[in-house]
Amino acid sequence: MKDVGTKVMNGLLKRQLALDRFKAKKEAFFLKREQLRKDIEEARIIWEKTLKQLPEQPFS
């Protein structure tokens, strides 16, 4: 029979590794989400500038 202390230690190490992976994925998600928001805002600004350059439409 294995030593109970090593089993507990291995379980805690696995849990810590899983927690670290989760935190890394969460941080990557938040960074990606923020970059996506910036890209959408930039596209909106470009779209508005493009619409201002177009000639007047008769039914606008």
Q: How would you explain this protein's 3D organization?
A:
By secondary structure, this protein is an all-alpha fold. 83% of the residues lie in helices and 0% in strands. It is rod-shaped.
Properties at a glance:
60 residues; mainly alpha; 0% strand
Strand content: under 5%
The amount of helix comes to: over 70%
Low-confidence stretches: none
Number of helices: 1
Write down the overall geometry. rod-shaped
Radius of gyration equals: 26 Å
Structural class: mainly alpha
| Largest sheet entry | none
Give the strand tally: 0
Please, what is the average pLDDT? 93
Task: List the secondary-structure elements in sequence, H or E.
Answer: H
List the helices and strands and how they pair.
Blueprint (H helix, E strand, L loop, with lengths): L3 H50 L7
Brief overview, please?
The protein has 60 residues and is mainly alpha-helical.
